[in-house]
Automatic annotation (TrEMBL):
<keyword id="KW-0812">Transmembrane</keyword>
<dbReference type="Pfam" id="PF02949">
    <property type="entry name" value="7tm_6"/>
</dbReference>
<keyword id="KW-0675">Receptor</keyword>
<keyword id="KW-1003">Cell membrane</keyword>
<dbReference type="GO" id="GO:0004984">
    <property type="term" value="F:olfactory receptor activity"/>
</dbReference>
<feature type="transmembrane region" description="Helical">
    <location>
        <begin position="203"/>
        <end position="223"/>
    </location>
</feature>
<dbReference type="InterPro" id="IPR004117">
    <property type="entry name" value="7tm6_olfct_rcpt"/>
</dbReference>
<dbReference type="GO" id="GO:0005886">
    <property type="term" value="C:plasma membrane"/>
</dbReference>
<keyword id="KW-0552">Olfaction</keyword>
<dbReference type="GO" id="GO:0005549">
    <property type="term" value="F:odorant binding"/>
</dbReference>
<keyword id="KW-0807">Transducer</keyword>
<protein>
    <submittedName>
        <fullName>Odorant receptor 4-like</fullName>
    </submittedName>
</protein>
<keyword id="KW-1133">Transmembrane helix</keyword>
<keyword id="KW-0716">Sensory transduction</keyword>
<keyword id="KW-0472">Membrane</keyword>
<dbReference type="GO" id="GO:0007165">
    <property type="term" value="P:signal transduction"/>
</dbReference>
<feature type="transmembrane region" description="Helical">
    <location>
        <begin position="27"/>
        <end position="48"/>
    </location>
</feature>
Amino acid sequence: MQRDWQSWTIQSEFEILYRFAESGKSITIGYAGGMYAFGSLFPFLAIIPKIIGRNITSDYSTRPVGFPYHVEYYIDLEKYYYPVLIHNYFTTAIRLTTIVASDTYVAILVQHCCALFSIVRYRLEYIRKTIKQDKELALLKGDNKFYKNFVYCIQKHKDALRFARCLEIVYTKAFFVEIGLIILAMSLSALQATSGTLNPHLAIRHAAYIIAQLLHLYIACWLGQQVIDHSDRVYTSTYRGEWYESSPKSRKLLNMIMLRSTLPCTLTVGKIMILSLPSFSAVVRVSASYFTVLQSVR
């Protein structure tokens, strides 16, 4: 990433990198806000029964009143209620921060990968404009300008493909664990939320937790869709520019880009499933299926 920020040759490339970096910043802020908001409702609503002095719980729950989770400290929980509660909230904050930090880091990397593909697309679609902005290309004569520009596009396209491949290699196993835990968490939360003696207070808590998991899942699938879309659009960009003004020798270079762009880059869940928007609905359906099975055997 540092090399890409230092190696841009025209102002438009820098603007593209900056625009996607700002997009990554917006995703980070929005995702962090959503996860902290919905993820915090589950533990913080647990203190309400203790405050109003009522035992608002269900027969299905085994946790002490006023604690977000079932814990065993081998001490008197009534006597040390607030220290234990603070510890519960502190561990919840650590867990949420870990999830937000890891997911937003992936989001920033994906946005940078999309920026690399967008730079290639820009140079292919605005060939004349690119040649005028690039001082090295402007000094060349005749078809050499087109040829060098296409060579640069091939190099940048290889960099983008290599970056996308690294993302897939590094995160495919992590996505497998992450999606698996999301399916399990949503199924169990839905099971608790539909227990026969559950009251509205606990239903809201579980609903907030499920929404946080859905947001978590949607962001992961949306990022995978972004990689697919931006890598796939390079193919159409090859024939949107002024390629017809170049020589047959230069046009042959475009065939290399078009051939590789026919197969879009993807992020997978343990090499089993491709992360995309359609896979979001597929995972939700799987969670619903597991919930139905658990409910039938409860």
